[in-house]
Amino acid sequence: MTDALYLTDAYLREFDARVVSDSEHGLVLDRTAFYPAGGGQPADSGSLRGPDGVVSRVVDVRKAPEGIVHVLESPSPRNPGTSVAGAIDWELRLAHMRLHTALHILSGVVFRRFGSGITGSQIYHDRARMDLAIPGFDRTVAEALIEGVNGVVREDHPVRVRFLARADALKDPSLVRVAQELLPDVETIRLIDIEGFDVQADGGTHVAHTREVGAVRLEKIENKGSKNKRLYLTAGPPDGAPPAASRP
Prior knowledge:
The protein is of the alpha+beta class. The protein has helices at about 90-115, 140-155, 165-170, and strands at about 5, 15-25, 25-30, 30, 45-50, 55-65, 65-70, 85-90, 120-125, 130, 160-165, 190-195, 200, 215-225, 230-235.
């Protein structure tokens, strides 16, 4: 199996690893900072450089029974045990982190105001969406929710990663807001703790402080049926503010 470095350090941009296996599907490494697609968050992209100096572009990353598979644009055969140097596309990762934390804040706002009502979410490179089933949802409600999100962003809460035994996590319904059958089959559940505001089970990457999310804007809402509505948002630094670019 692959040691998933992103689970404890979302700001790790470069890393060294060794090839475990190489097949038509891609490279499996013993450790990686690349996030594989899952949980509504897209995969990272980037590059792998071998000891011969050959650089291979990573265009997709997937979970598989044997580990995390790195799909290469132009496969370059690597023998097991070969060392590689990985580098992720930081700007794309940072965009995913901002949007993912924005969704968690929105989930917390919805949970506080309505108790539940989230039916799904998805992150893209430039925006994110959340599906909601809450009473009286319209643009006024959506704008109020986004206003609540920006309030939490401005308060600059630390965002921590911590772990909890699965049995203990399942005792608290506020921690697990997806169907239990969607949780990974592991003994320890990873939690994203927006200190003083919200805690949720999650396996994705996040910024270290809510202020790094930047200004959250309502892009649009869509009607997805009699009950389900879809809210699209964008996130990024306020106008004139530099993007977060280094480990906090």
